[in-house]
Design brief:
Number of strands: 0
Distance between the termini: 20 Å
CATH topology of the largest domain: Endonuclease Iii, domain 2
Bound molecules: iron/sulfur cluster
CATH superfamily of the largest domain: Helix-hairpin-Helix base-excision DNA repair enzymes (C-terminal)
Helix content: 40-55%
Shape: elongated
Number of domains: 2
CATH architecture of the largest domain: Orthogonal Bundle
Radius of gyration: 20 Å
Largest sheet: none
């Protein structure tokens, strides 16, 4: 089934070969930066949180889980504990019970308990504002650290999730060799001061239009504009 990419193409007859103005990644990036800002002028952070700590825990919970489901359980978790000090006093089994709907509850509960203890012991109960210190916390990888740096602290970062990794390949901004390579390529192509809002806009577009399956690469505005002569999907790597 094709996604409902019900946006009109940017002009021309799709039946005729057309001149493509977007033959380089830099030209495609400039168009995307402008067009996505028009489509998504507002960039609300999808995971509900009240500060850097609650965002960190929410991002950790979002692994292999939807943001909607995470937002459904975090109010109950914050009611029990919403600071590292308070969370480090909650038994792991109790945390697991609350977060069970998110999946991987035992691992996530252990990580939340352990990182809360470490925040108290090593960082005075505060979330550190550096990639190295964030990535040293249990359960916190580079993507999670990037989300916290961007969305809690406003530091330039480009978290690459599955939506962004897929779109970057379908829009030929990267060869998709790895998530790490995609992040490097996107950072090279887009102005640093746009990264934080742009990564959210890419996620919004990916969720709305560009699902993992079911698209032939020709159905919605952006692909039809960037690749007017495309006739079939390009394979994407995970
Ligand atoms: S691959 Fe291109 S045409 Fe297909 S949904 Fe994604 S952006 Fe739209």
């Amino acid at each position: 089934m094709k996604p409902s990419g019900g946006i009109a193409p940017a002009g021309g007859d799709a039946g005729l070969a057309m001149t493509n103005r977007f033959t380089t990644p830099a030209a495609r990036a400039a168009y995307l930066d402008r067009r996505l800002a028009e489509l998504y002028p507002e960039t609300p952070v999808p995971l509900w949180h009240q500060d850097a700590y609650t965002l960190l825990v929410a991002v950790l919970l979002s692994a292999q889980c939807t943001d909607t489901r995470v937002n459904g359980i975090t109010p109950g978790l914050w009611a029990v504990a919403d600071t590292p000090e308070a969370m480090s006093r909650v038994p792991v089994a109790r945390i697991a019970e609350i977060i069970r709907p998110c999946g991987l509850a035992p691992q996530k509960a252990r990580a939340i308990a352990a990182l809360s203890r470490l925040l108290v012991e090593r960082h005075g109960g505060r979330v550190p504002r550096s990639f190295a210190e964030l990535e040293a916390l249990p359960g916190v990888g580079h993507k999670t650290a990037s989300v916290v740096m961007a969305q809690a602290f406003g530091e330039p970062a480009f978290p690459v999730d599955t939506h962004i990794h897929r779109l970057a390949q379908r829009w030929k901004l990267t060869d998709g060799r790895s998530v790490e390579q995609t992040e490097r390529d996107l950072k090279r192509l887009f102005p640093r001061e746009h990264w934080n809002r742009l990564h959210l806009r890419l996620i919004f577009y990916g969720r709305e239009h560009c699902t993992a399956r079911g698209c032939d690469g020709t159905v919605c505005e952006i692909c039809r504009t960037l690749f007017p002569n495309r006739r079939r999907a390009i394979p994407t790597r995970k």
